[in-house]
Amino acid sequence: DSGVTQTPKHLITATGQRVTLRCSPRSGDLSVYWYQQSLDQGLQFLIQYYNGEERAKGNILERFSAQQFPDLHSELNLSSLELGDSALYFCASSETGVRTEAFFGQGTRLTVV
Amino acid sequence: DQQVKQNSPSLSVQEGRISILNCDYTNSMFDYFLWYKKYPAEGPTFLISISSIKDKNEDGRFTVFLNKSAKHLSLHIVPSQPGDSAVYFCAGGANNLFFGTGTRLTVIP
User: Fold this and answer.
1) Chain A residues with CB inside 8 Å of B34's CB?
2) How much is the pLDDT for A40?
3) Mean pLDDT in residue range B75-88
4) Dist CA B90 CA B101 (whole Å)
5) How many helices (H) and strands (E) does chain A have?
6) Cα B15 from chain centroid?
7) I need a surface site. Which of A18, A72, A81, B94 has the fewest CB within 10 A?
8) Taking CB atoms and an 8 Å cutoff, what residues of chain A touch B31?
9) Which positions in chain A touch B102 (Cβ < 8 Å)?
10) Does A48 contact B at CB distance below 8 Å?
11) How far is Cα B107 from Cα B14, in angstroms, rounded to an integer?
């Protein structure tokens, strides 16, 4: 158990809908990352937060947004969903977010039908 | 644009032999590199890391080598065990982490 909790584990929704994925980082970790993994592909970096502030942005679509709350949990919001958004979404956390290992949650499998 | 590349999607090795997984990166600003192991239906698990000030880091059966001039790193697993069968991701970065596409390692008993 990495200590990173993601909910829900599975989500099935229709095209055009909006969903929210939630992540609770390990106790003491200030940085949260979001990654997308499609069809056994690599982990695509989406976005990183540190202590509530956005630190880095990767290949995140404009239809997607995220935030990190004062209690350090994070949410990834996906809207106007398309079939191609079906993927595993991973959250990871690390102590400082700089030159340190990140610990991953179990992921949320999103299926858009 | 893939900043971290793992060009071998799969590798099969006999139990007891050495497994060598390779990774290349393009961004010369990267100064920290990691290897993760992933089993199906689980999140990636951290394995070993290396800072750019070193060229080798060892942890038990796992050794990571970094060649900065070639922008190349490799993970050596000696001896390989059937339980090592998994997908291995390398990652690199400075303030955040970029991952490769993974190499599926199969260790044959």
Assistant:
1) 101
2) 62
3) 97
4) 8
5) 0, 11
6) 19
7) A18
8) 99
9) 40, 42
10) yes
11) 6
How far apart CA A10 and CA B31 sit, in angstroms, is 35
Residue B101 has pLDDT above 80, yes or no: yes
pLDDT digits (tens, 9 = 90+) for A42-71: 788 899 999 999 998 988 999 999 999 999
Identity of the residue in A58, A97, A99 whose CB atom sits nearest the CB atom of B51: A99
- CA-to-CA distance for A104 and A90, rounded, in angstroms? 7
Residue labelled with tokens 């940085």: A31
Q: Read off the DSSP letter of residue B82.
A: G
**Which is higher by pLDDT, B109 or B96?**
B109
Closest of B75, B77, B6 to residue A43, by C-alpha: B6
Decide if A59 touches B, using CB distance below 8 A: no
The residue among B46, B65, B47 whose CA lies nearest residue B55 is: B65
Each residue's pLDDT tens digit, A4-43: 999 999 999 999 999 999 999 999 999 999 999 987 677 8
**Cβ–Cβ contact A32 with B under 8 A:** no
Q: Which residue has the tokens 């350090």?
A: A72
Q: Which of B2, B46, B98 sits opposite A103 (nearest CB)?
A: B46
Angle at B81 between CA B79 and CA B82, to 5 degrees: 160
Alpha-carbon distance of A97 to B69, in angstroms, equals 26
Rg value, chain B, Cα:
13
Q: Which of A35, A1, A31, A4 is nearest to A95 (CA)?
A: A31
pLDDT digits (tens, 9 = 90+) for B3-44: 899 999 999 999 999 999 999 999 999 999 999 999 988 899
